[in-house]
Design a protein that fits this description.
The protein has three helices and seven strands; from the N terminus they run E-H-H-E-E-E-E-H-E-E. The chain is an alpha/beta fold and about 160 residues long. It folds into two domains: about 70 residues, Transcription elongation factor, GreA/GreB, N-terminal domain (Helix Hairpins), CATH 1.10.287; about 80 residues, Roll (Chitinase A, domain 3), CATH 3.10.50.30.
């Protein structure tokens, strides 16, 4: 990877939980089903066998992906931020656009981004534009809908 995979402790725990659930629960159960289906004879028309093998490949791919992401992860606890007056990883930021529409978002790792919940990935255009900003700073962002200017209204970090 060319850049670190920053992630919050909660985001890392979520990746780890998914990995363990797939590896310890789903995969062994699926292998058992495939073995049972293989014992039933003709595999060319055996739906359990065909679907099981396909699902096993999907699980193995996902396990490989999760393993790489966890290996490259750099867990950063936002509550330990040294400068709480500026926007850095883990900050919850309130911004206002030119029309005075306010929006609150949290800068998180790319693996835990969820726009519907206001969590923006660290490498998203909006997050990159906000990095290092202080209250009152104006930041211009190139978005698919065109350029927009945002003013930073508030910056907050979780408490330890």
């Amino acid at each position: 990877m060319d850049r670190p995979n920053y992630i919050t402790p909660a985001g890392y725990a979520t990746l780890r939980t998914e990995y363990e659930q797939l590896f310890a629960t789903e995969r062994p159960a699926l292998v058992e089903t495939i073995a049972w289906a293989a014992g039933n004879g003709d595999r060319s028309e055996n739906g359990d066998y065909i679907y099981g093998r396909k699902r096993l490949r999907e699980i193995d791919r996902r396990l490989g992906f999760l393993s790489k992401r966890m290996k490259a992860a750099k867990v950063v606890d936002p509550s330990q931020a040294p400068d709480r007056s500026r926007v850095y990883f883990g900050a919850t930021v309130t911004i206002a656009d030119e029309d005075d529409n306010h929006r609150t978002l949290t800068l998180v790792g790319d693996d835990e981004a969820d726009a519907a919940q206001g969590r923006v990935g660290w490498n998203a255009p909006l997050a990159r534009a906000l990095r290092g900003a202080a209250i009152g700073d104006l930041r211009r962002v190139s978005l698919p809908a065109g350029e927009k200017e945002y003013e930073v209204i508030a910056v907050a970090y979780p408490l330890a």
